[in-house]
Amino acid sequence: MNVFSAIAYLVAAVLFIMGLKLLSSPKTARRGNMLGAIGMLIAVVVTLTDQLIIDYTYIIAGLVIGGAIGAFLARKVQMTAMPQLVGLLNGFGGAASTLVAYAEYMRFTAEGIDPAGHAWVALILSLLIGTVTLTGSVIAAAKLQGTMSSAPILYPFQKHLNALMLLGVLVMGGFFLMDPSLWYLLPIIIGVSAVLGVTSTIPIGGADMPVVISLLNSYSGMAAAATGFVLGNNVLIVAGTLVGASGFILTDIMCKAMNRSLGNVLFAGVGAEFVAGSTETEQRTVVRYTADDAAYIIENAQSVIIIPGYGLAVAQAQHVCQELVSMLQARGIEARYAIHPVAGRMPGHMNVLLAEANAPYDILLEMEQINDDFKNTDVALVLGANDVVNPAARYKKESPLYGMPILNVDHARTVMVCKRSLNPGFAGEDNELFYDKKTMMVFGDAKATLTKLVQLLKK
Amino acid sequence: MDVMLMMSIYVFVLAIFVGFEVISKVPPLLHTPLMSGSNAISGITLVGSLIAAGEGHGGISVILGMIAVIVATINVVGGFMVTDRMLEMFKRDTSKPAK
């Protein structure tokens, strides 16, 4: 690498860091993303001038095909399908790392290069992490898309088998390090890693998806960093590590928001075992209300807080929801959103969904910002959320939700819950909030109910 | 241990700290764009795939390189564009005067 490329790569790395820094405020975030893209462009252009490259045919073909697919996906995908797309893009990053690492190995053998030992270690890690990222992301995306059931798939000795596969990859890697002429070990390592990616993602159910998506995000970065060590290229190490750290922080935030350890999310398969336990609860009655009743209460409220959940995304009700909010604001009623960190299927899912509906970001409030305001609020309107408002999390020690920080919806004067059925949430814990005296249950699809509400309030 | 590797490890360790420092300041509001934007950055493997696809050795290594270029480019282009599309939607409340 000549001095010119080295400096250009450094500039790219600095642009990545500045870009991520600007992502800390919605005012500068777009510029930050642009800086990242410019950094990437610089890195690519400099690489293309590299003397190692003698044939541009395949490069141009690859760039054109990949660019077209990428642009198509980015433009056409619906905002509600964003979790799947982000998941899938993680997978592509992982696949690229695996492929580059393997191609580099082929170059070593073709040119008779005997690289230092650390390159082999990095090579094996790159194959392992890259492949797990690819197949894990494909499964996660299929679950999010609904191509595959989002319910956890569990079978006996699942954890043990996964641990065994990981161990197997590491042992094979060890043998390969001792004797790099054992070329056939690499395809086996890739194959086992591919299976491991699948078997470690299928036991994870729908509501735990934010953790998995964040974790795969982190993996895709780590795979890139490992590939950087194989190639001896610092820009890959910096960029990959930044992403690895970012995904790791998100994973940690998501786990804390559910009061569960990462190990528990990855291995416990919540949602399958607990559903059975919750069926024996005594028959309790809820009070059913109609949209007309709800409209009357809302009309006479002074402050309303809306709690969106995955149900809002499924019903695609974000636009009509924001229409309701604008309408309330026009009447002088204070209307805001309370967003739980794990609402939806990926970190920040609700924020993106509501931003699409033109909800101004300064009324999208985080749990810590708004939780004390519920007691002074007339109406808390829960739209397709369940576990994140379940008071059982506060005291019921045997509940899978116990200890999870929740939105203090039950402190509001009136609670309205718009839900399709009384089915318990993902964790299988019946929600006593629904049986509370001040709770009005309005059954039905979130979009239909909200549309009705908006029509009634127009009158 | 050679000097190159030592330098790479330096870079790696410092990048971990920079990453934690910078990213822990991103508010939950922007977590999805953070994820898709950082994901686009992890498509930096594109740099490696360009070299693999262009070395002119012919055979499987070049084909692998080209597939790597395709998937990495999807990752990069798709990631940055979709992030931009999302960030474009984040708007301030204009219904009330700024404080």
Task: Write up this protein.
The complex is a heterodimer of chains A (459) and B (99). Chain A is of the alpha/beta class and 459 residues long. Chain A has three domains: 1-55; 82-268, no CATH class; 282-458, Rossmann fold. Chain A has 18 helices and six strands. The longest helix of chain A has 30 residues, at 82-111. Chain B has 99 residues and is mostly helical. Chain B has a domain at 27-89. Chain B is built from four helices and no strands.
Q: Which key phrases capture this entry?
A:
heterodimer; A: 459 residues; alpha/beta; Rossmann fold; 18 helices; 59% helix; B: 99 residues; mainly alpha
- Please give the count of helices of chain A: 18
Largest protein interface? A-B, 116 and 84 residues
Helical residue percent band of chain B: over 70%
- Shape label of chain B: flat
Oligomer: heterodimer
- The end-to-end distance of chain B, rounded to whole angstroms, is 58 Å
Number of helices of chain B: 4
Radius of gyration of chain B: 19 Å
User: Mean of the pLDDT scores of chain A?
Assistant: 89
Distance between the termini of chain A: 71 Å
H/E element order of chain A: HHHHHHHHHHHHEHHEHEHEHEEH
Main sheet record of chain A: 6 strands, parallel
Largest sheet of chain B: none
Describe this structure in a few short sentences.
The complex is a heterodimer of chains A (about 450) and B (about 100). Chain A is of the alpha/beta class.
Topology of this protein?
The complex is a heterodimer of chains A (about 450) and B (about 100).
Chain A: H1 3-22, H2 29-48, H3 57-76, H4 82-111, H5 117-145, H6 158-178, H7 185-201, H8 209-231, H9 234-257, H10 262-268, H11 273-277, H12 291-299, E1 303-308, H13 310-314, H14 318-330, E2 334-339, H15 349-356, E3 364-366, H16 367-370, E4 379-383, H17 392-395, E5 414-419, E6 439-443, H18 446-458
Parallel strand pairs in A: 1-2, 1-4, 2-3, 4-5, 5-6
Chain B: H1 3-23, H2 31-42, H3 45-54, H4 60-89
Helix pairs in contact in B: 2-4, 3-4
